[in-house]
Design goal:
The structure is a single chain. The chain is an alpha+beta fold. It folds into two domains: about 1-50 and about 150-225, no CATH class; about 55-145, no CATH class. Helix content is about 20%, strand content about 35%. The chain has helices at about 1-15, 165-175, 190-200, 210-220, and strands at about 20-25, 45-50, 55-65, 75-85, 85-95, 105-115, 115-125, 135-145, 150-155. It has a three-stranded antiparallel β-sheet. It has a two-stranded antiparallel ribbon with strand order 3-8. It starts with a helix and ends in a 7-residue tail after the last helix.
């Protein structure tokens, strides 16, 4: 009975975020193919998950004016885009009249636009004359690959899901700041589910389910493989 409940919780979690399907014999490599393709054939476990846009980041250094006279001769205003408009997956209510004991039954994944972000500052055009400035590093984001579809990704098979795996995932999510201290109980609930999805979003991973790439990103060791 206990094993049945664990498998039921896992299936519910996967189906709420991925189009779940698997072949228990497949042991081939993780693959990102045609989003319209059928599930990879052969032994193993796969689920169709949400693939976000891939974003690269880099740091740039700017000369930032630290004085009080914004009208000074060698001081000018700058507004620089540091993050472009991107698309993110979010869950929204599919029907305002939907009623269910489980709120997730009324939610569907939808793409939303996140507006671009800017860094606004005053800079110095002549650092020999104007000495009131500092060097400030600012993070820039770039879309390196356009993706916002669903595709088949390799997942941990249900017969490899254990309380130990749940706890190891929770411990890693706590260490990375996505789950609260004390939540490493080995019991998978809504808080753990949301923390995992937030981690996947923050790291531009396929969203939903215990995917291989998520396990590697969390540094959860491969006894589940």
């Amino acid at each position: 009975m206990k094993y049945f409940l664990v498998v039921f919780v896992l299936l519910f979690f996967l189906m709420s975020s991925c189009g779940y399907n698997y072949d228990p014999l497949y042991k081939g490599p993780n693959s990102y193919g045609d989003p319209q393709s059928s599930m990879p054939s052969g032994p193993g476990c796969y689920a169709r998950c949400l693939i976000p846009e891939q974003v690269s980041k880099e740091m740039k250094t700017y000369i930032v004016y630290t004085g009080d006279d914004l009208t000074a001769k060698h001081v000018v205003f700058r507004r620089i885009e540091i993050s472009p408009e991107i698309s993110e997956w979010e869950k929204i209510k599919s029907d305002k009249n939907c009623v269910s004991d489980n709120p997730d039954d009324c939610l569907v994944w939808s793409l939303k636009k996140v507006p671009e972000q800017f860094f606004e500052f005053y800079t110095v055009t002549d650092t020999i004359i104007e000495k009131n400035f500092k060097l400030q590093e600012v993070e820039h984001s770039y879309i390196s690959e356009q993706k916002h579809f669903t595709d088949w990704v390799r997942i941990v098979c249900p017969n490899s899901i254990t309380k130990k795996l749940y706890k190891n995932i929770q411990v890693s999510l706590i260490e990375k700041g996505f789950l609260s201290e004390g939540d490493a109980t080995g019991i998978w609930g809504q808080d753990s589910n949301e923390a995992l999805i937030n981690f996947q979003k923050a790291n531009y991973l396929g969203i939903g389910g215990f995917t291989y790439e998520t396990m590697f990103a969390l540094d959860v060791k491969g006894y589940w493989q």
